[in-house]
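Ticket #4471: structure export looks truncated?
Reporter: QA, pipeline team
Priority: medium

Steps to reproduce: submit the single chain below to the structure queue and open the exported record.
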Amino acid sequence: MRNIGNFIAAFALVAAQAAIAGTVDQRSPFVQGNWWNPDRSGSGVEIFNSSDQTMALWYTYDSAGKPVWYTAQGTTSTIGTASWPLLKHRWVDGKKADPTTVGSFKVSFSNVQSGQIEFTIEGVSGKWTIQPFVATSMIGDMDHSGSWYDPTNSGWGFTVIQQADVLGGALFTYDANGDPVWLSGFERGTNSIGYLLYSGTCPTCTYKPFTTQGAGRLTFDFKDEYHATVHSALTLAMAPGVNIDGANVVQFSRPMSFRSVDRELASFTDDFAMKAFLQDGMLNAQPPLLPGGFSAGSPSASPYSTTNLQEAGVDEADVVKNTATMIYTFAHDASGVRQPSLRMVSIGGLGSSMGEATTVPLAVSSAEMQFLSYAGLYADDSVLVAINGSQPYVYGALSPWSAGYTTWAGTRTYVEIFDVSAGTPQSKWRARFDGAIVASRRIGRLLYLVTRSGPTPGAAFTYYATPGSSADARNHDIVAQMSLADLLPSVRVNGRAAVRAVQANELYVPPQGMRKRSADTTLITAIDLDKREAVQSLGIAGSAETVYVSQSNLYVASSRYELRAAGGTITTFDPYGAATDIHQIRLGESGMSFVASGSVDGTIGADMDKAPFQLSEDGGRLRVETARIEALPAPGRVRAELTLERS
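Actual output as written to the record:
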């Protein structure tokens, strides 16, 4: 095929770079692999890029309904703007002949999972909307997906699609006359695939269902991500010199391990890239939901214990905490309204005696306290920690995670550390974090605080402005004037000036899929209780669904697509269906670090308190329970077990 030498050389360069770091700008501009038009089932387009080149292999039919394949290739930067030559290939005298230009091919993408092709074949034009071909949303332990060929016998090859236990794809080759022809097939749980010869409708003809006939089997013996041997038991007569049986093939496209950043968290390279992402996210801002959906306000927390420890060794906050000698709780007035102070009482003889209750003031003011619905304590013989914060209030069964930005904007979380080693608590450190509290956990001498914040664009901002309208232009002007300080959460320690809570290389973006960019930030802060300082921060850009913490890992789960609009209705069809990405963050004295990402079918529950109990870690494996809704049968539940290891 044309430019094969340049394509392979560029591929090697990208592979070396991808192994160094995972950043947003290293992600593919579209989902690599097979795309299709669901309205014209029976054909597909393999699309992949390497370095500055993008290539398409189009499996379709001629005007007589015979299977035919074409190729198109161009500079990646011209996607959406330029038409590339559409080439038809032949096999002559035992080798690949020069291709013939039969038309043009233009591809564009509205997001990495939604595209369009515009084409002309032999003077007739057409247009398709395409999406990735998906057998399952789960990511398997092995993935050999890509385009494969035999360098010693080039001109034909395989499109391999491997998704979890599904393996298959298409063979592009030549019939006995040297004309291009293709076969396709899929199997589960085996590397021996039954292939079919298709007959169907040309791209510009009135669509009719395709027909198939058996064409034998191919068996793939994968050595690794780059090498495989193919054994053929195909019955289709092919041109002399197309030697498939026993062929040693290699990847023509980039192997999956070189594209891991496409399905993992990715950080920013600098402030400029981060600011551009967050500003784009602001232009997608949604208003807070009205009653019946969500509200930023919430009632006072109940003045009784709700602690239910999920993991041994991972302490959770509670409104009442005790040691062997002390009991601590929050003070309340006669109406049960929480006050900006703590109540404490000493106990002796395993509770046989009790001292007089005393009150200790908190740094948070009474005016601030009335807007803080959450309260929690951590305590031992040397330290007492008080947390007060905003928390989203949810009506019904919908998830607060998918609420508009302003549900999270303007919220605050306060942390205050007291030294209790001498008896009477002495306030030693306090901090105010932008954002509502999502969760907190204490492991040893480290306190992990998870908050979520969203910037507010101001009263002049128009939500859902029509693109191109004066309101839309005004929105762009407003967002363009926002600084990083306006867009990112900040922290104020001991009353000092507010400082930025996260740096560019500490803010990670989940795979975007069909989701619009978001300016929300989920912030994870590690606070050393002995040093009395925040020792590390790590942020997740956009939405998340739940947080689960074991003794050594923190997991953040996020739906792969936008589940709901502002009114709570399902909005987006995603070719991957209901799926959840789970990101593993290693915890420890040396700091937090991103480890790997995985995915499961279905979504995790909406209840912020109960959802973490749908995850558990055991023996290095993460167990997840999700739910999915299907047309038939009735709603079901899915259990999955993941081992997250970064390649």
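Status: closed, not a bug. The export was complete when the record was re-opened. Leaving a note from the reviewer for reference: The chain is about 10% helix and 45% strand.
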